[in-house]
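Supplementary notes for students who missed Thursday's class. We covered one full example, reproduced here. Read the sequence, then the structure, then the short commentary at the end.
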Amino acid sequence: MLKGIILVLFGACSFGILSTFVKLAYADGYSLSDVTGTQAFFGAILLWSGYFIQTKTGKKVYPKSKTHWFKLLAAGAFTGLVSMFYYQCVKLVPASLAIILLMQFVWISVLLELFIYKKKPSKMQILAIVVILFGTVLASGYIETNVNQINLEGIIFGMLAALCYAIFLMLNGKLGNDYPPLKKSALMITGACILIFIALPPTFLISGALSGSLLKWGIILAVFGTFIPPLCFAAGIPKIGLTLSSILSSAELPVAVMMSSLILHEEVNLIRWIGVIIILSALILPNLEMIKKPNIFKKKPLL
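Structure (token representation):
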């Protein structure tokens, strides 16, 4: 279980640094289509390359998969929807509010698991969710946002992004667990890439944009957005479940705040740092249940 926790946290932290690089790419004059398209395109190339290298050099043999590959393509399309909805949300509402809207995937995930799988969250997990949402309000700077800046269309896009992210987490934990993690992730990102290319035609492939800095940003976003996180989630979520994965995935926000301060030199006041600390503290709460089980580490090797 500890291995699953570490993998999901690492994947979430990798997601957390994306917003900084996306802002740098936008500053270079690239569009939503350029950013989302190159991220998915290069991510699919990296994952399929890794999988084929693994099949040629690896000794581990996986049993024949029972899950149809088309289901993983369809599930992966939700990651493409997350990118498109969230980045559109950022255009319409303040970034601080957009982050809050995206973080609603935490309670949405719990509701999905409750209504679909009839799995009730523990009291400790409910407490952690409440604390995370409170910390999110502080860390995002929402209390400093002018109410007049709020755009209803932007709120809708933000909630759609949160819903799609919650669905992706749920599907990732239930589908394709009989696949090698690299192949599962490659199929999912291919699904995301197909959806993005249909919605936002990949003009960057013929416009010459890749001869500029877009190639650099595309590869960076692919590594940290579509290569590392899917692998971590594919291997980690089945080990710890959707609810705990949703809570641990909240690490994305404090990482994003810290990156914006360190790299972009954005001002992060005391209230926002307090919010970051609250969220990090809340991430520990669900794991207190593990500490109460002294024999958990004896049952199975963690690494």
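Commentary. The longest helix spans residues 214-240. The mean pLDDT is 80. If anything here is unclear, bring it to office hours.
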